[in-house]
Amino acid sequence: MATRAPAATGRLLVGFRKWYYNMCGFNKLGLMRDDTIHEDLDVKEALRRLPENVYNDRMFRIKRALDLSMKQQILPKNQWTKFEEDVHYLTPYLEEVIRERKEKEEWMKK
Predict the structure, then answer these.
(1) Which of 70, 75, 104, 109 shows the greatest Cβ crowding within 10 Å of its Cβ?
(2) What predicted TM-score, i.e. pTM, was given to this entire model?
């Protein structure tokens, strides 16, 4: 029985994550999680490093979400971003930018 507890806990955690993801509401506008990150200097640099097609897809999602928001509408349910389809496309670039910035700060201290 002890071996089943982690699996049950894992399923419960995934279920909670899916529930929370749907409650946030950005998926109803067709946005992904990384589309909602506040744009500070690190994020702007990470966005600059994105491949052009990924950046263009992001801009399309954001413009569509703004349009829907202005009209006080949401997408049809079959067009909502699903939890399983939400790819963290910006996170690797952002982590690299932050790592480089911290490394530069350490270098400047010396």
Answers:
(1) 75
(2) 0.81
